[in-house]
Amino acid sequence: MQITRRHFLRLGGALGAATVIAPAWLSASELQAAAAGAGPGTGRKLVVMLLAGGNDGLNTVVPYGTGDYYSKRPIINIPQAKVLPLPGAPGFGLHPSLAKLQSLYTQGRVAVVQGVGYDKPDLSHFGSMDIWQSGNPATRQASGWLGRYLDRTPGRGGALRAVSIGNSLPKLLTGETTAGIAISSLGGFRFADGADTPGSEAARLHQGYLDCCSGVTGDPATDALLTGGRTTVGAVRSIAALAKANSPSTATLADQVATAMTLLTSSLGVEIVMVTLGSFDDHAAENPNHDRLLGLVDAAIARFHDMAVATGSPDKYLLMTFSEFGRRVNEDGSGGTDHGTAAPMFLVGDGLAGGMYGAQPSLSALDPNGNMVRAVEMREVFSTVLEGWLAGPSAAQILGYGPGDGIHPVRFLRSVTSPAAPAHPAIAY
C-alpha cells in the first residue's frame, strides 16, 4: 500500500491519532515519551518483589537462638530442628521452605537486612504500603521513589524503562512526570487497532509509518510527531516479536520473574520490573499458608538466579524483596498474627557482599502496640539501591532526607565505595 503524505497525515496524525497507532497499554502521555526511542538495554537491572499483605519476618528469618521467640509463639514457631541455618549467623536461620535461598546465601549471593521499617509505623495495609512505595515516611508523596528516579534520569534507556507485572501500575513506579507501565503478560503488549494481523489495513498503515522518512512536511513539530509515531510502532513491533519468541505465563511468582527477566535481558531498555505475590495477611492458621507462600518465593528467587546466570553477566541483576510490614511478635489466639512493623528484606544477586546486615530488633522491648522497634530505616536500603546499584542522582533528594536524619547506606553491594558517613556493617556475632 502506497501512503502519500496527505493520506499519512489524515489517517495517522502521528501521535495524535491514538486510535490508529496507540498500543492498548500506552496512554497519550506515554506515547509522547516513546518518541525518545527504546535503546539497547545497558547498565544494571532491578527486580522488585512485593510480598503483599504483611509477611511474617520472624517466621521467615527465624531467631531460633532467642528464647522470647518460642515463649511468645508457642503454636506457630518454627522448631529449631527444622530451621535452615545461615553460616556465619549463629542463632538465625531460614524457614524450611526457603532451601534454595539458603543455598544462594551460602554462596554469598544473598544479603539479609534485618529489622527494616520506619518510625511512627502505620499498621494499615493501605497506609503502610503507601509509605513503602513513596519512600518517604515523613511526607506522604503522590509519586514512588523509583518513579522519581525515572524522573531524574530521563536520558537512560527508552520509554519502557519500568514495568509492573500485573493489572495496575503501582505507586512505586509512578513518578512526578514519568511512569512505568503495567502488563499482565508479554502477550499484553499489543496494538489497540488490530495491526498485529498480517495484511490488515491497520498493519499496512503501520508499515507506512515505518517507511515514512523524517522531514516530509517541512514543519519541525509535525516531523517530530511523525518520527515519534515511527518509533512507537517499531518499539511495539519489537515487543510483539519478543512475546512470540518467549511468552511465559505469569500464573505463578516464578513465572512473573521469568517474564521480568525476559524483559530485562531484551534490547528494549527495560531497567526495573516489579512482581507481586499476595495473601501474606495471616491472622489465623498462619503456618500452612505461610509455608506455601514462602515455597513460591523460593522457587521464584531460584528462577531469577538461574536466568541471571544464563545471561553470562549475573552481576548485572539484583532482586529486592519488601512487604508493607511484618507481623506482631506474639501470636494471636487463632494460630496467626496481627499487623506488625519491622521485618527483614532479602537482596539476591552476584553483585552483593552476601551476609547478614542490620540487627534483629528486641522481642521484649516492644513499642506500645506490642511490635518490634525497627533497627534499619527503609530509606537506608533504598538509598543503597538508588546510588550504589542504579547509580542514580542524590538519594537524599529522591527520598527526602537531610544530614540530620541519620540515614546511612547499608553496605551490601560489593561495588559501593566507603562513604564519609557511617554505614550499617554486617552483624557481628
Task: Give a short overview.
With 429 residues, this protein is α/β, with parallel strands linked by helices. The protein has 13 helices and twelve strands.
Primary descriptors:
alpha/beta; three-stranded antiparallel sheet; Alkaline Phosphatase, subunit A; 2 domains; disordered C terminus; 429 residues
Q: What would your notes on this structure say?
A:
With 429 residues, the protein is an alpha/beta fold. The protein has two domains: 1-35 and 190-245, no CATH class; 39-185 and 248-401, Alkaline Phosphatase, subunit A (3-Layer(aba) Sandwich), CATH 3.40.720. The chain contains 13 helices and twelve strands. The chain has helices at residues 5-11, 18-21, 28-34, 67-72, 99-106, 125-134, 145-152, 201-211, 220-245, 253-264, 286-310, 378-389, 395-399, and strands at 45-51, 61-62, 84-85, 93-94, 110-117, 162-165, 181-183, 272-277, 317-322, 343-348, 355-358, 376-377. The strands form two sheets. Strands 1, 5, 6, 7, 8, 9, 10, 11 and 12 form a nine-stranded mixed beta sheet that branches. A hairpin with a 7-residue loop joins strand 3 and strand 4 (93-94). Helix 5 packs across helix 11 (286-310) and helix 10 packs parallel to helix 11 (286-310). The N and C termini lie far apart (73 Å).
List the helices and strands and how they pair.
Layout: H1 5-11, H2 18-21, H3 28-34, E1 45-51, E2 61-62, H4 67-72, E3 84-85, E4 93-94, H5 99-106, E5 110-117, H6 125-134, H7 145-152, E6 162-165, E7 181-183, H8 201-211, H9 220-245, H10 253-264, E8 272-277, H11 286-310, E9 317-322, E10 343-348, E11 355-358, E12 376-377, H12 378-389, H13 395-399
Parallel strand pairs: 1-8, 1-9, 5-11, 5-12, 6-7, 6-8
Antiparallel strand pairs: 2-4, 3-4, 5-10, 9-10
